[in-house]
Amino acid sequence: MCFDNKRRGEICRICLAALAATATLPAMAQTYPVKPIRFIVPFAPGGGTDLIARAIGQRLTDALGQPVVVDNRAGAGGVIGADLAAKAAPDGYTMVLGSPGPLTINPNLRPSIPYSLKNFAPITLATISPFVLVVNPTLPVASVKDLIALARSKPGTLNFGSGGNGSVAHLAGEQFKALAGVQMTHVPYKGSSPSIIALLGGQLQLVIDNLPVLLLHIRAGRLKALAVGIKRRSMLLPEVPAMIEAGVPGYEASTAFGVLAPAGVPREIIARLNREIVTILQSSDIKERFAALGLEAVGGTPDEYAEHLRAELAQHGKLIKAIGLKLE
Description:
By secondary structure, the protein is of the alpha/beta class. It has eleven helices and ten strands.
């Protein structure tokens, strides 16, 4: 096949352009970042999610040499902020702090949500907040087995509270009911704090919620911890058994917070962000800072976090379907 000089020139220019495009990604990773990075938090300032993002963002600013700016976008249970991140340019300059509400619960409850896990590129799991089953100290139980026996002897009379229908705490309680084979009455509140106040006041008999909102009350003896929801004992409450150890096989409840970017961010940039954030999470000062909040620093690969999200989405979907939960 023969080509004239003009045609050969066109082919050369196309080849050179292709080579240049191929070389862009490594070069981009080497120069990245060249401007500030937005770190979206889908909840209001001052909460646990916000504190995690600010701790990571502050250290990441030092590591990358560019400001990491926390952008609180609260609303619709985290959906507004998550949607904003999902639709952002996939250039490595937008991240979001993910949690079960907007990523794995609401997609099962709200079919109209305008995003899915496919719209995100996981970077790393950041922290785990174990769930803890706590009771009012006046309740005559000393263990999970005692609680189950009491609940079975008085079906439907024990009340458990949560921060609202469809909240992680609500699903944690429903999972306990299903696996323990007990009947209890769910009482939803507008947030975790009101439910804990009700528990302290004796209006509720138990709550299963995040360790950070319960830790001070447990340590002060105002609430009695019977079990933690993760598969092993928590390093923050080593004296409290895991739920599976306490007699409820298969139980697992926690809130996992992780860092994600919009889908399509170059792999080299995801790898750089993963490397820097995991280094931050493994530092002793960050571990101590998170432990004081009742959080366990984790870190891991993007693939590990992606698998965690897929499993959590399936777990929540199965439970929501089983209990027939629908938001009005």
